[in-house]
Amino acid sequence: MSEQIILSVEHLRQSFAIGRERLEVIRDVNLQVRPGERLAIVGASGQGKSTLMHLMGGLERPSGGVVRILGQEVYKLSESARSRLRNQSVGFVYQLHRLLPEFTALENVLLPLLIRRVPRRSVEPWGKEILTRVGLSERLDHKPGMLSGGERQRVALARALVTRPALLLADEPTGNLDSESAESVHQLMLDLNQELGTALVIVTHEPALAAHMEHVLRLQDGVLQPLDAVH
Ligand SMILES: Nc1ncnc2c1ncn2[C@@H]1O[C@H](COP(=O)(O)OP(=O)(O)OP(=O)(O)O)[C@@H](O)[C@H]1O
């Protein structure tokens, strides 16, 4: 069990039709992520990092290749089985928080559990605990509009981790934050990686965060290549 591969990607390809041309964004990506592993993906703007994250998270069907999450071939599943797998095994954090504005911080965090039709009272204590863990015990009833950028991003992180996913996919999660808020969100991801054993795959331009990762890969010309430690 401990050696079960969390995420496996084989010969992944993605291209987009632009008029009569095809834009080959992902040409041949191969990757394996083990439980609790920490991996950073770097690369210049437009090289396909967000596209790759969507493909790996089961959000966008590739032109070719295979993505497996916990051994299940993601794009062979029905739409509903794929959403279930995502809900159970993958947490996402985006550059923009994507919280629902009309819900409180606690409600936003509980949402991934409530859509499983779990009664709210049975999950509320854990929702409060994880918000406390990200330093927001005093902000449970705040709506996103009443929170700072860093606080919103911490709510987004709590929401991504409330299901205790095996894998967290984070796409420049602190790209819009000041350095102090960014540092606190980085530390949290690393702490939760240690405490919950969540594997991390993070697209980041921030050397300070990449330095905490076991592997740093560069996406360039549609393929991933190992990069020596970023300093
Ligand atoms: N649905 C789409 N249709 C057509 N082209 C697309 C589509 N999605 C992405 N692209 C193109 O694919 C390329 C890679 O985009 P992507 O957002 O994955 O890059 P990125 O590395 O994440 O960039 P950044 O660092 O600027 O966020 C871009 O040239 C983009 O225009």
UniProtKB/TrEMBL annotation:
Keyword Nucleotide-binding assigned: yes
Taxonomy, superkingdom: Bacteria
UniProtKB keywords: ATP-binding, Nucleotide-binding, Transport
Biological process terms in GO annotation: lipoprotein localization to outer membrane; protein localization to outer membrane
Single annotated GO MF: transmembrane transporter activity
Residue ranges occupied by any ABC transporter domain in the UniProt entry: 7-230
One GO CC annotation: membrane protein complex
Keyword Disulfide bond: no
Database matches in Pfam families: ABC_tran
Family: Belongs to the ABC transporter superfamily. Macrolide exporter (TC 3.A.1.122) family.
PANTHER family in UniProt: IMPORT ATP-BINDING PROTEIN, LIPOPROTEIN-RELEASING SYSTEM ATP-BINDING PROTEIN LOLD
Protein name: ABC transporter ATP-binding protein
Lineage of producing organism: Bacteria, Pseudomonadati, Pseudomonadota, Acidithiobacillia, Acidithiobacillales
